[in-house]
């Protein structure tokens, strides 16, 4: 069997506003659009992916918070309504998705062997979080590829940013090993914004783009710094403590660290497909070059 591979790793932020603005049939709320720079960015990412052959999307999400260990979806299909607890006015999404349980279990088992605390989520009534749904919808709205969704064990909140990074770097390594052994071609998604200080009131309508901007100059500088570091991902890992603290970064959930580690800490710049703010948070859609084991 040929070795599996990662065909792309992408930073794929999940504000529900993006799905709301797209008006897909799955979402009950309707809009007049908005956040076009980011939605066009996702369009470009989808265009890049359209000529790539891949079997499964693996997403790490901060909104499935599991304080005791990292959890993995372990049921073939999930179908229900996902309502964003903060923005129920924007996101009430009817999902119907398939899970690659075999690969999910393989990553779980590798992680357990390496000493990480892990668990398979085998409750068929489990409600899928909106981070998983939004990132996967924006990347592949057809929902014709199975997914693997990995929870955030919130290591930063429970321990420290250093412990979070140590665990997510290990989780990235064992993810890569499981992919390689599986023979499957995978797309990795780190489902998170960059700076994450957001407004506390909503405009009317929410998609009024005349009101959208970054919350502060400092947040903008952090976002630009991280985008500029895309070819120096070791530096992103090194600066993660300051980034999480000073920019209230949503990378605090571990998704970006996990993906960088799984891809072997890339030293080639990512392709920036789009940058924009959503309720004041900084969001970049970025694609890291395809990584194959054995490549220089
Ligand atoms: Fe979020």
Structure description:
The chain has 296 residues and is an alpha/beta fold. The chain is 35% helix and 23% strand. The protein is built from nine helices and ten strands. The chain has helices at residues 17-22, 36-50, 101-113, 130-139, 155-158, 161-182, 217-228, 233-246, 255-262, and strands spanning 5-11, 56-65, 70-73, 77-83, 92-98, 118-121, 147-152, 185-190, 271-278, 281-288. It has a six-stranded mixed sheet, sandwiched between helices. β9 (271-278) and β10 (281-288) form a beta hairpin. α3 (101-113) crosses α6 (161-182). The two termini are 23 Å apart. Bound molecules: fe (ii) ion. Fe (ii) ion (FE2) binds at residues 14, 62-63, 131, 250.
